[in-house]
Amino acid sequence: MSEGPVETGEENEKAVFTADSAIYEYLDGGWKERGRGELKLNIPVSGGERSRLVMRAKGNYRLILNASLYDDMTLKDMDKKGVTFACINSIGESPSGLTTFALKFKDTGIREDFKAAVETHKAKKASDTPKTPEGSPKASDV
């Protein structure tokens, strides 16, 4: 069997932010680690589609996060190096679709760069904006 090029779905996108991170999901009243790997903020090269967050696990490149940005997306600081946000993860198991996630970076500077990149590339369509799930933790709860 010969190896050919692997399609990732990111061929028509450009990464405007990349950083190593750990991702946590808020489930059943607590944080559960979902993995560690490279987080990317991808923007479409051709336009028309939304920018999205993509994260793959280190080593096996398993998809951990695939979520479109939306106009009302709010990023809240967590601890010194983390940030929380709500989004719809296309690979998630949440029945409502919307889940609260936390990302932890190596340092505060990377977190601030991430927040600035997300603010710059949020979607301009507000018609299908998700709302924060009921019972989600506050940034101070973490």
From TrEMBL:
Keyword list (alphabetical) reads: mRNA transport, Nuclear pore complex, Nucleus, Protein transport, Translocation, Transport
Superkingdom of this entry's organism? Answer: Eukaryota
What residue stretches are annotated with the RanBD1 domain? Answer: 1-127
Membrane spanning stretches: none
GO-annotated biological processes: mRNA transport; protein transport
Q: Name one GO cellular component term.
A: nuclear pore
The segment annotated Disordered runs over: 120-142
Say where the protein is mainly found: nucleus
Q: What name has this protein been given in UniProt?
A: RanBD1 domain-containing protein
Organism of provenance: Aegilops tauschii subsp. strangulata (Goatgrass)
